[in-house]
Amino acid sequence: MKVLMSSTSYPENPQDWRARFIADMVAALARRGDITLSLWAPPGEIPADVAAVSTRSDARWLGELSGRGGIAHLLRTRKILAAATTLELMMRLGRAYRLCPADVAHVNWLQNALPLWGSRTPALITVLGSDFGLLRLPGMKPLLRAVLRQRRAILAPNAEWMRPALEQAFGDLAEIRPIAFGVDDPWFEVVRSPAVDNTQHWLAITRLTRDKIGDLFSWGDRLFGRERQLHLFGPMQEELELPSWVHYHGPTHPADLLERWFPMACGLITLSRHDEGRPQVMLEAMAAGLPVLASDLPAHRDMVQHRQTGWLAANRDELCKGLDWLEDSVNNQNTGQAARKWIKDSIGTWDDCAGRYTAAYQSLLERRS
User: Fold this and answer.
1) Of 37, 105, 198, 304, which sits with the fewest C-beta atoms within 10 Å of its C-beta?
2) Mean pLDDT within 339-366
């Protein structure tokens, strides 16, 4: 079965934080013996048996786009530039779809499905939370409906909570099949041990934008200090003033989290207001047995069971109670173990995810015949 995957983001090397989940997805699909995978994406390290089909010009252009933060970042910050960039993306990706025939197109992000126009190639389209911002743009739903009308398609959000809105918008034209991403084995093998100085180390791992930070700085004021520290990781994508009590480390990468920060941390905290799918860093933290304290969003409720696998906070008082509750060693250990079990039972590994995608590819081809 020939599968052409498209993605506008891909990590340049193992230390690159960008779109690690795409690299994990590609690696898992490459391990299967029933798929021949081609990849149109920015330059990066890919498995030997995956064919890179980006031209040199495309790879250079995609690399520059990633360096500017990607399409979603441009849409938020530089709308005129984003319009021109989007048109060029459509042209380049449309050419790739035409010149690289496949049994199934695996499209990451909804906007990358638009250049399928004019073909009949069956498509599996991965939908993330950020795609919901795209759907609010004028004319976007009719354009996507026109593309879906031409082919057999599965829209595959990475979380169940997205199903109702997608059913309402596209359910008459495509199957809506949530497919959860997986978690790599090393995250399940993390052995946690408290920091030797008895300091409570909380981690926030996110792109630094106002929506992603949410209420973290305002609610966290006077809750964090010398004995309870907040360590912030991620690229600065908007100009934000960081409070003096925040320990900012810049972008990070999986090895640093696995080997240093996850074993010593008390928990992961996210108070995002952003359109979320199912944040990969939360899955990885839970697989590592690290409790998660999260804002009370639909995406977070889809993952975190309050006081069982983590803590949900809708206001500053609930954040304060959650910090205290999860800093109790018994609550912390029990919550972390429950989170790890839930990930094993409900999400599984990236190989499990690759199996779910392969079953979806096969169903598209069976319906075509």
Assistant:
1) 198
2) 97
